[in-house]
Amino acid sequence: MKKILNLIPRPWLISISIWFRPIIKWYFKGSRFTDPIDGSSYRKFLSYGYQASRPNALSPGTLSLERHRLLWLYLKRKTTFLEDSLKVLHIAPEQVFYSKFKSFIHWSYTTTDLNSPLADIKADVCDLPFEENTYDLILCNHVLEHIPNDKKAMQELFRVLKIGGTLIAQVPIEENRFITFEDNNIKDKAKRTEIFGQYDHVRIYGSDYYNRLESVGFKTQAIDFLKEFSPQEIESFALPKNERIPLAKK
């Protein structure tokens, strides 16, 4: 079953998961790993990534990845966002969070994306159809690395966020890289995958990611939330080994 699941693209896996998720959850049931998003425990998580490069990355139940579980734990343990009455914009909504957030009657929750079937409003993040100072919280995770003009996207996110509001915009960051690398001349998909990690990524962000956000007006903070977990908890929740949560305030 593991080999079969690794051959299925994640979007397809998400689409069919509504039917097969109970079976998958039962098959992998155990006590070694726990998904904090739904509280279920498993004997193992699924491998994920190109050539299944990340073992125990994908939860069989929620289909969460390491970054999703880290963000959920941060929201639940370190903020009141999940309890507050908020106006929330979710760019390219992740399936793992969509049903939960949609059910929050205390949130005014809007999703947007150019292509996602989960999007309430089809829109380009570089040209959002919303008024200035509209949202208390914006989630825009693993989006900006796909956007050629990320500065324009950041300007739009800043524009529609309320004064005092929060943007959480996770991206893949190489923390030991000081300057973001991008080269629009690289067109070959295999070469882009080799250099950028995915064929549809347009850059590798370095630690100057925060400077890029600040250049459009945000005040940023890199939250090293992982340091609050023991090695045993990091293993149990299958969290990323080295990732900080980027917060941007207006």
What keywords describe this structure?
250 residues, disordered N terminus, 2 domains, seven-stranded mixed sheet, 22% strand, alpha/beta, two-stranded antiparallel ribbon, globular
Would you summarize the structure shown here?
The protein is of the alpha/beta class. It folds into two domains: 2-64, no CATH class; 68-249, Rossmann fold, CATH 3.40.50.
Layout of SSEs?
Layout (H helix, E strand, L loop, with lengths): L1 H6 L2 H18 L1 E6 L6 E2 L3 E3 L5 E5 L7 H13 L7 E6 L3 H8 L4 E7 L7 E2 L12 E5 L10 H11 E8 L20 H8 L12 H6 L4 E5 L7 H7 L7 E5 L1
Parallel strand pairs: 5-6, 5-8, 6-7, 8-9
Antiparallel strand pairs: 1-2, 3-4, 9-11, 10-11
Would you give the CATH topology of the largest domain? Rossmann fold
Write out the CATH superfamily name of the largest domain: Vaccinia Virus protein VP39
How are the strands of the largest sheet arranged? 7-6-5-8-9-11-10
Total strand count, please?
11
